[in-house]
Amino acid sequence: MRLTLLASLAMLTALAPGAVAQTRFTFVPTFSVSGVYDDNLFAENDGSAGKMLQFRPSLEGSYETPRFLFMSLYSQDMLRSNFSTLNTADARRHAFLQTNFRSSPLTTFALIGRYDRSETPGEISIDTGILGARLTAQRWQLSPNVVRRMSPVVVLTAGYDFTRENELDTPSGNLHQARVALSHEWTSRSAWVGTYLARYFVDPGGTDTSQSVLAGWTREMAPGTQLSLYAGPRVASYRSGIKPEVSASLRRDTNRMDVRADYWHGETILLGVEGPVAVDSAAMLVTWPFRNRWELGSALSASDITTLDLREAQVYRAAAVASWTGNGMYSVAASYGVDYQNGDLRNHFDGIVRRHVFRVSLIVAPRLFRSVLPPDEAARVKGVIR
User: Lowest CB count within 10 Å: 36, 267, 290, 317, which one?
Assistant: First the structure.
């Protein structure tokens, strides 16, 4: 599903209307202070509650021209807790970059990169959300893509995705994914998509491969509402027979409410587990900007994960968020989240783990930007005829 989303992003970028003929710089330095209460700091059967003060400086920047876009973000968390062992200036790092380059009206190149390092490994288990003991872990992801319009109704997309996860000073697990997709626009609002997807898993236990052929359909159900469905057979070197690969997503963006709903049945890597793991995952995110300065949000997700040796775990998550923004620079947010996990895949605990986290944050984020118009346009704005 993640590959499908990356392909969709690149495709939408390639097919979007032409950008405004100007250069735009944006720079956003941000600093947030959060008070956190966590009733299960170490993700154990019998949790230990803790109070923490979290400081997060971050830098965000972008550079945009009619043919080129570059965005980047870096943040680092500093933590102080009533548990002295958790006090650190490097509790979490996060870096993200994205570049899009339109080499011609028919061809767009994209590159997405991400790096996460955390003392809470569950934060970087993006596909599964599974909890684990407090250990320093890191995750790298790099995803180049190219989109080429072959004809007025046919679009070719090719991409590669590399992911590496490991706990510090331990061997890593690597996942290589390659994808080629051909989309045919059936109508102005719908398209059929055929996709070939190959995965290559590498870890200390050896290597495994899988291949899938997917048929997909995307449909703009209404303005701001899009539905996507993909399904097909998968064969793998580590398991006999044919297994299904399925993903579905619904997007709705309106002035009153944003909705994201996803389902994915596939395979991925999991920190601390050798070999591929099978994943069934469903998630929904709803955002409601019910006032000019107020916004409410809620998120629900459920995952079922199975390893090669048939160990299994279920993870359920729910969260609610409320935020207020004043004058565009200051904001205050409060959130409550609950995790419920049944089963363990890394031998860190036995039985059921519950976790409740309450957070209140103050964020200061001044936005600095500058637009540079081309000479002819700048002259017109100033009332000069050239």
Answer: 290
